[in-house]
């Protein structure tokens, strides 16, 4: 019987900087709903956003330009808003720029194991 080994992923933790702006409106931890979170993650681009923030982040939070998507700004705004309203990411307004990071602690408390599944996902290489 073949053995299966699971790759272990580590969430890159970066401390919150002092003086960070208050987060934009988001659902409370108790209000996070699995069906809403899964619906937001059903889009491959949004899934890729969350995975990249978990595995590749360099700072506490990142602007949408950091992801390198070749999409119109209005499209990206829609995707990031869907992630924030579902409770997956927290966004803060820095002047004209919104920066995002994953609500790791909140999601792990509410849906243990979900973020590990997101990290293990690999986008199709078409």
UniProtKB/TrEMBL annotation:
SUPFAM superfamilies, per database record: Winged helix' DNA-binding domain
InterPro entries membership: HTH_ArsR_DNA-bd_dom (IPR001845), WH-like_DNA-bd_sf (IPR036388), WH_DNA-bd_sf (IPR036390)
Q: Which superkingdom, per the lineage?
A: Bacteria
The protein here is known as: Transcriptional regulator, ArsR family
State one molecular function term (GO).
DNA-binding transcription factor activity
Which parts of the chain are coiled coil? none
Where the record annotates domain HTH arsR-type, the positions are 36-116
């Amino acid at each position: 019987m073949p053995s299966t080994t699971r790759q272990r992923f580590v969430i890159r933790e970066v401390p919150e900087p002092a003086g960070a702006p208050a987060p934009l409106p988001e659902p409370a931890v108790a209000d996070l709903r699995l069906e809403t979170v899964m619906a937001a993650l059903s889009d491959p681009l949004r899934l890729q956003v969350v995975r990249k923030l978990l595995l590749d982040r360099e700072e506490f939070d990142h602007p949408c330009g950091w992801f390198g998507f070749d999409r119109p700004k209005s499209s990206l705004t829609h995707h990031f808003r869907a992630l924030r309203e579902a409770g997956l990411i927290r966004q803060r307004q820095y002047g004209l720029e919104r920066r995002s990071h994953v609500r790791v602690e909140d999601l792990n408390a509410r849906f243990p194991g979900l973020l590990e599944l997101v990290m293990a996902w690999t986008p199709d290489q078409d």
